[in-house]
Queue: 2 jobs
Job 1
Amino acid sequence: MANKPEKPTENTMEEKEEKEKKESFGLHLDLLMDSMEETRFKKKYSELIEKLVHETHFNDVEVESLLIIYYKLAKENMKTEKYKEKSVTKEQFRDFLHCALDMTDDTLMDRIFVSLDRMPGSTITMETYAHALSLMLRGTLEEKINFCFRVNNAQIRVYDTMGDGLLGRDAMFYLLRNSLVSLSGEDDAEESVKDMIEVITKKLDVDRDGKISFQDYKQTVLKQPALLEVFGQCLPSRGAVYTFSTTFSSNPNLKM
Ligand SMILES: [Ca+2]
């Protein structure tokens, strides 16, 4: 364009960034395949698609689209010849969650992997991937409660060998400090964290034994869903869920 304005307006800047983000993500969100490949894909995965329709909150078209994304990510790996099977690496899934669902916190991602997939190894299976997205995009409150508690516990287990499934004051301090330091700076963090622990314990410790058990947490969050991510973000934001859902679903608002 000859008369391109020097400074794009804010709106087009945003659009440009969004476009670049999608482009940098490249192939991954491209759901198109040539007809031969599509036939092969459907033949190979039709049983798995049917199984996943039962096990996840997606319909058959949505499962197929999500598996195509996986398939294309995995296909890229074959080029490097490092992986013998067509699998998505955890690294790729991390990038995927970053770009598609705006989840940027690396320590959070580590926790999520421990919770999703206890199997060691560098790859993530198609089924684990589909279940993870079902939970993140369409999970019921109860599913999310189970997941978030596991994620928080996984984080503790990394640093605390006591991992007994209870969140005591030390564990809470650790979790909350992580999310607060970035907000308020090192010095103020400690006092704020202690205050928060008081508030949270009052709200969540239903049986008043000083620790937050899964039952304490579950009972409280079922009544007050806003407390789901009280120990730190574990799930993508609503906005990110909606935006990504438009790429693979004809009904992105669908909430099951
Ligand atoms: Ca308790």
Job 2
Amino acid sequence: MNIFITYDTEKTKPAALEFSKRYQYPCINISDANTSDFTTSLSLNFKNEVVELRDNEKDISIHIDFLSGNLAHRQKYGGGRGQSIAKAIGLKQGTPPPSVLDATAGLAKDAYVLACLGCSMTLVERSPVIVELIKDAIHHAEEDEYFQTILKKGFEVINQSSIDYLTELKNQDVISPDVIYLDPMYPDKKKSASVKKNMQILQKLLGKDEDTQELLNTALKIAKKRVVVKRPKGAGNLSEVKPTYTVESKKTRYDVYIIPKE
Ligand SMILES: C[S@@+](CC[C@H](N)C(=O)[O-])C[C@H]1O[C@@H](n2cnc3c(N)ncnc32)[C@H](O)[C@@H]1O
């Protein structure tokens, strides 16, 4: 996907230029952003207040905020260990929360929910644009007292293909994560107007994830205790390997693959 990098002040210019150089995207001052190429494309905007991803054609934008809006609400009132996602990753009273590797970090919503449940998190995301949004959100939250407890437990972000990352973990004989969590992009059958803003922009930027079966197979070889795959209710399994069991919520199904003990 064609993407522009923009900045709005001298303060945000260096970060925008550095990103554009590293990933070879054109970089412009936002006030010069009016060519037809620009108005039909996505842009990653380094603004004074926030880094946002904007669909200039549809005039919608997204950024990540761990401290207000949906994520903060879910942290305060989300139902704790009773949530389906908590059951799916195997959170139990009296046992320490597992270490989780989120191999499809995306906008880090699920990763943040899991971190709020006490899990130490490693987030792996292959899109550098998305990683920039996550890093900006961490930067904005790091002075917050509650968020500092999350950083202390572990909330590391890695910009790499998860298949490569997991393969390196295995080759280096590093301790495996207890749980590997997958939430790949799936083709949405609904008309695009009804698809949420976040998903519309992600779909435009990233398309469909084509390597999900390989990712699941790799994860199954590396996770210590389980692999959890988030699917829309009614969608097929990710591969021919059948899950051990499923946990269902209103719109979502979690396929849980328990790793047999050696
Ligand atoms: C549907 S989004 C995940 C949303 C996320 N669970 C959340 O709560 O915001 C899927 C993300 O996984 C990333 N992804 C898919 N396959 C990947 C892979 N093999 N390695 C790294 N990232 C991957 C995509 O780039 C995309 O950003």
